[in-house]
């Protein structure tokens, strides 16, 4: 995963993606039937932080997050934050993507949870230490698109996600969204898949969407793309022919895994 080119993770990245919307409503876990998120809560804001760690600092970076960063974040009031990592098989294995939710932009007018917990001097020391462990940090602000997504119970215990960074042509957003909502999402729902979509707003390409298709294992990926599993090769081809030519200008995929030991996930969160 060279760069998130928008967020979940990439969401983005993911997330979740993306994931913030999915996990903000635990009642979704009560229904075993995957359903489009048309009636779900409004889209939410996420900050996606892409961190490129120095290879020789990987162990120290993870220990620093577990022993220093996360306790301070919890003290500062953070209740949910997910950390995803590119796999060795499809992406940069030294890259992490951190997904955190925020309610409003005014939240950035006050000290961050880390600064609240550590104080000005402690935060400066934390920043210096964190900076010594990484090669680069890039942040994106995205909004989740539950109207273009579909959720199943599997999303509450994600192991892997196939992340697609989809760039659409200028002025072609509505065509892409219509296809996703009316044609692709029903197929994903029929398969019982979790398919989450976010849209980059700040920090990246404003014409980019990031999608996450949750997977339980690499073996599940061997079964092929979800539309092919549901419709067969010919049916899947006909499905994607419904997307007007030229709508998508660039597509890039990666595989990421959730790192629960580096994440902050409430104990009451559905598993």
Query: What is the C-level CATH assignment?
Result: Alpha Beta
Radius of gyration: 18 Å
Please tell me the overall pLDDT.
82
Q: How would you sum up the global shape?
A: globular
Please render the helix and strand layout as text:
Layout: H1 19-23, E1 35-36, E2 45-53, H2 58-75, E3 81-86, E4 95-102, H3 113-133, E5 134-144, E6 150-151, E7 160-168, H4 173-190, E8 195-202, E9 208-215, H5 218-221, H6 226-241, E10 248-258
Antiparallel strand pairs: 1-6, 2-4, 2-5, 3-4, 3-10, 5-8, 7-9, 7-10, 8-9
Summarize this, please?
The protein contains 6 helices and 10 strands; from the N terminus they run H-E-E-H-E-E-H-E-E-E-H-E-E-H-H-E. It is α+β, with helices and mostly antiparallel strands and 271 residues long. The chain has one domain: Alpha-Beta Plaits.
Give your account of this protein's structure.
This protein has helices at residues 19-23, 58-75, 113-133, 173-190, 218-221, 226-241; strands at 35-36, 45-53, 81-86, 95-102, 134-144, 150-151, 160-168, 195-202, 208-215, 248-258. It is an alpha+beta fold and 271 residues long. It has one domain (19-262): 2-Layer Sandwich (Alpha-Beta Plaits), CATH 3.30.70. The relative contact order is 0.23.
What key phrases describe this protein's structure?
271 residues, alpha+beta, Alpha-Beta Plaits, globular
